[in-house]
Fold this protein.
Amino acid sequence: MDFFQQIGNTLSEVASIGVVLACAVLWLRRRSGWLLLALIGELGSFACRIGLMLAPKLYSDMPLLRVLWPLNACIFAIGLLGYAWFETSSANTREGSPS
């Protein structure tokens, strides 16, 4: 593995940890089911990323694992979109702002 690939992998791990922490902080403040779904999806993606780093051969031996990473990314995206759509629209309704 060359230097730039190692830097890229490290930055990817740091970014994923940042997203997990951001979801956790939001969930602790809002206790939204949508945020919990996003947190679970991002934790799953992070686990897949770590698994690929520690055991890359496992991903070539078990094709099902290659489906889990994008599936977790979709779970994260659905959770975040649900939070953005439903939680912010209900906040606007409570404040009396037009939608």
DSSP finds four helices and no strands in the chain. The mean pLDDT is 87. The helical segments are 3-30, 33-54, 56-61, 63-95.
